[in-house]
Please model this.
Amino acid sequence: MVRAASCVTLPSVCPHTDTAMLGKHLSRLLNTVVPVGGCFHELPCVLDLDPFSIMVNLHFCLASLLDALDPECKMALRPLIAIDDQYIVQIAVAIRLVQYLLTVEPQGDMPDLEGSDTTGIVDLWEKLHDWALGSSCDKELTSSSPPANALLTGYRDAVLPLLQRAALFFHCCNGVDLPQEDPISYEALLHYLCLPDQLHTIVTASQGVGLRHLVQTWCQHRGVAQQIGSLHSAAPPLSCMLTEVQSLHSLPQHYSELIKIASNFRCPKFQTSNRDSTAVIMCMICGQLLCSNCYRCMTPEGGGEAIGNYTRHLRECGGGVGMGLWILECYMVMMNAMDLEDVRGCILPAPYLDEYGESDIGLRSGNPLKLNDDLWKEFQQYWYQHTIMEKITSTNEQERKFILFSWSKL
Model:
């Protein structure tokens, strides 16, 4: 089902994406996955890669480059997107499988698995270690292979989170319905993603010669042998290799703690000044305090018009999209500063309520404020679901007075 061609491309998400820049990004990405040339050992080894991130980046980059072609070429090559997606999924699964088999240390015997081919997974484990360690002395550390059933059960558990995320990703891209199971079984995920029942066969099967050579190249990275040696000597086994999702900066339960932090803040350009900064914004991505909406802190950007301190920081910290808490005004600022010629934003009440369940923009009532978990979860969802720009647009449609505000001066 993953063969269904996706209609989503990177320009639809980032309409100002430059094709040349996109090509350079794709070239760097492919050099990491399909290493060539003498700089192979300077690139991250397979144990340092995040297979899901690679899969998503490859999907959008290839689809976006196709979208930039002439209409005739685009129509002729569009079926290739379906084939590309299938290969991309296989590469991501192969990366996760190699990561597990090179670092696993299962303990004890496991019960026999009905109808399972345990010989193939053991042969692959031995080949990977032969390719990674060769004739080095570290090979003695892995002279005895783990139990076959433990390998087979372990790699299923290791690959399952990747399969779940991949299925959800392609469901959002293609609209193909997910299996009607709760929870979705391992076998159903394999069928949904057009993967074989025995995942290790994508490397060991005769039709997977190209992928087998690619896996062999990954294992010959000198960083792989170094990490395997450290794993067997002192360090614990690698975990599931999932990249941690970046969350918003945590907030204290009581707003008085934020006011205390803001009262001690001084503008970094005028440390000797006794004047307090009234425009203190806390970046919710990294937690840094910034002096914003202040002309003395503005800096020119690219030889053009000067931009505010928070706008400059947001472009460096969040790629131009994010949110910050204006502490002394008690509201949340959402901004989209990806295009400096069209910076947009909106303000929302901070996720703090008083004992009557009301917000206090401007801190006029003076009532003690406490963090509201439900409101805070809404802001977190804007961040997790990448809907900050949509929220800015919908808010400005209701409160049109903020459209003409010079957001780039913040």
